[in-house]
Write a structure and sequence with these properties.
By secondary structure, the protein is of the alpha/beta class. The chain has helices at residues 12-23, 34-43, 65-70, 87-95, 113-121, 163-176, 186-207, 211-216, 218-238, 247-258, 268-274, 285-295, 300-316, and strands spanning 4-8, 27-31, 45-49, 54-56, 61-62, 75-80, 98-106, 126-130, 133-139, 142-148, 152-155, 180-182.
Amino acid sequence: MNPKYLVFGTGALGSVFGGFLLKASCDVTFIGLGSHYEEIVQNGIKITGIWGDHHIKGIRGFRSVAELHAKGEKFDIVLFCVKSIDSETTAADAASLLKPDGIMVSIQNGLNNVETIAKVAGNQRTVGGRIIFGVEIPQPGIAKVTVYADKVLLGEPFGSVNKDLLQKLSADLNNAGIPTEIVSNIMAFIWGKVLYNSALNPLGAILGVAYGKLGENEETKFIMEKIIQEIFEILKVKRVKTPYRDYKDYFDVLIQKQLPPTREHHSSMFQDILHGRKTEINALNGAIVQYGKELGIPTPYNELITNLILFKEKNHTK
């Protein structure tokens, strides 16, 4: 089996996933826009950072879905790498390029991404991903892997998909140098990543500090614990199972195990604010606020954090 891959959204994560798969001799096509995309099509992707220095050339790229439709192209595996804020507007286009027995994989942060994919691709073609390594683009053409906390996890959020393709995807990623595992309860891990991101990303963006500083101060630790406590109230009502007993159990894991290896990392939300881009706040703390309103659960700390980030967006967005 030699599946045809489409990397839909060639930003930071898309560059690393697609670049390493291409280096491992997989059949990879890229679709994207902007200066970074134009640079990698012309001169290849330069991947630097903690996973070493690589220069992958021979990028097969397209700027629009229409170009691929005109060529009659369909793909076995679509890696959906767009920002959560763009999921609703781009998922249908990505799904239109998927083979009938293919799979579309959410390589994204936040909530409601797999649900958005399933609406257009179907439950049987939707795969969830939990990604917990960090990538920055310091300049067009370069993707820098800055932090690695755990392996990529893949799973079926809504029922059975093409298991041969899912197994092949996992094998290809491992062969490419991206540690990956298939799990049976992917939604629990996606929510686990939401806990991590919601506690750290917006506070780091508001205060302009790396993750480690947040875990060193009692004031920020107090706020993070309250954010996590509110999310656990949502999890309880929604009956979502996580590996943690309660919010205090997860908070201890965050401070003692998850923060130390990522202490020097600045959140992608901080980078978005710096560069005048929209953030993913509404797929993180903002989504918690929305669930709280629907379920009648107060979420004052998540709401305050969301509003502060939205203020920074309005005053920094280009």
